[in-house]
Amino acid sequence: GPRARRARELLTVSDFSRGELSRRLGIPAERFQVVPNGVAAHFAPQAAGAVAALRARLGLPERFLLALGNAKPFKNLALLARAAPSLPLPLVLLAGQATAARHGFSRSTRELASLPELELPALYAAAEALLLPSRYEGFGLPVLEAMACGTPVLCARAGALPEVAGDAAVLLSPDEPRAWSEAVARICGDAAARAERVAAGRVRADGFRWEASAERTLDAYASALGMPAGAWRASA
After folding, report:
1. How many Å is the Cα radius of gyration of the chain?
2. Res. 205 pLDDT band, cuts 50 70 90
3. 74: CB partners within 8 A, 6+ apart
4. Which residues pair with 112 in a beta bridge?
5. What pTM was computed for the model?
């Protein structure tokens, strides 16, 4: 709190986070600059061979839905546990060991305890869709990572997720399992609708690049030092 109030520049990753920080720290929201996170270059459409190899090595179904998170209540994985029996495809859960049992997921759920960062793009690309029901996210980077890999996203209308996803994702209530089941059925059963979401997601993810985030951060440092925006470019 006191250090933040003395700072010349304050940065955060989303308008939602700016509002939360302003409320919790008692600092006017306009003092915060929003510099969104970016999508790393390796999150991109994957070669069919790489996807097939990952699917075979992990023993994944030919078609499946992917859910990410952890056991913390705000991740809201309990909603997917309730929806799972009526989903049209099996669910693969990457949320830490024993999370599926803790939340009562059906036996058809395939649980992955962990996965190396560099293998995530192939996992995203293998999935029919990413399901992210979290009630509270300061940003929500998996939304953009999945979109960059060509995977449709269904996420909660909560926290920063609508801000990050824009119109490219299917936004759903974090409290209505039936709505999730119905939305997933539409995405999985309508090839044209799925293709539309894939295309929109690629465009959305392209707007979040680490290079742009770095430039905006450097501009903030320049401002804190009393220099004009872009001054750092002259010495780069």
Report:
1. 19
2. very high
3. 134, 135, 136
4. 94
5. 0.93
